[in-house]
């Protein structure tokens, strides 16, 4: 199994709106691509004064599934939060393999 992990830093002033949108709109949109088998969102425990950190994990079975997601869906889905929240969020992405 593999994990597509998105690490996010969210401006504290908008993080409740972002979290609601993330769990009610964005994560379901990503799952509707059919490329992932599950997901999970975690709040980072380290506290910053002006930001809140989250890790969003999407699970997939094969690198082919991830490649299809990246080639067919990622660009559009990655634009959604930027259009909605602008520079109030910062994201970095990585792939992990469960050992």
Q: What structural class should be given to the helix and strand makeup?
A: alpha+beta
Gross morphology: globular
Strand content: 35-45%
Write the H/E string, N to C: EHEEHE
Terminal-residue CA separation: 8 Å
CATH class: Alpha Beta
Per CATH, which architecture? 2-Layer Sandwich
Helix percentage range:
40-55%
Indicate how many domains the architecture comprises.
Answer: 1
Q: Kindly state the number of beta strands.
A: 4
Integer average pLDDT? 94
Under CATH, the topology can be stated as: Alpha-Beta Plaits
Core attributes:
99 residues, alpha+beta, Alpha-Beta Plaits, globular
Write the topology of this structure:
Layout: E1 2-11, H1 15-31, E2 38-43, E3 51-60, H2 63-85, E4 89-97
Antiparallel strand pairs: 1-3, 1-4, 2-3
Helix pairs in contact: 1-2
Provide an overview of this structure:
It is a single chain. The chain has 99 residues and is α+β, with helices and mostly antiparallel strands. It has a single domain, classed as Alpha-Beta Plaits. Strands 2-3-1-4 form a 4-stranded antiparallel beta sheet, covered by helices on one side. Strand 2 and strand 3 form a beta hairpin. The protein is globular, with a radius of gyration of 13 Å. It starts with a strand and ends with a strand.
Question: Can I get a quick summary?
Answer:
The protein has about 100 residues and is an alpha+beta fold. The protein has a single domain, classed as Alpha-Beta Plaits.
């Amino acid at each position: 199994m593999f994990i597509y992990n998105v690490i996010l830093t969210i401006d504290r002033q908008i993080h409740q709106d972002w979290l609601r949108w993330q769990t009610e709109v964005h994560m379901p949109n990503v799952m509707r691509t059919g490329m992932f088998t599950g997901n999970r969102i975690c709040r980072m425990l380290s506290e910053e004064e002006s930001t809140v950190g989250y890790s969003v994990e999407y699970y997939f079975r094969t690198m082919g599934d991830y490649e299809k997601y990246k080639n067919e869906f990622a660009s559009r889905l990655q634009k959604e939060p930027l259009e909605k929240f602008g520079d109030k969020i910062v994201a970095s992405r990585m792939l992990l393999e469960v050992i």
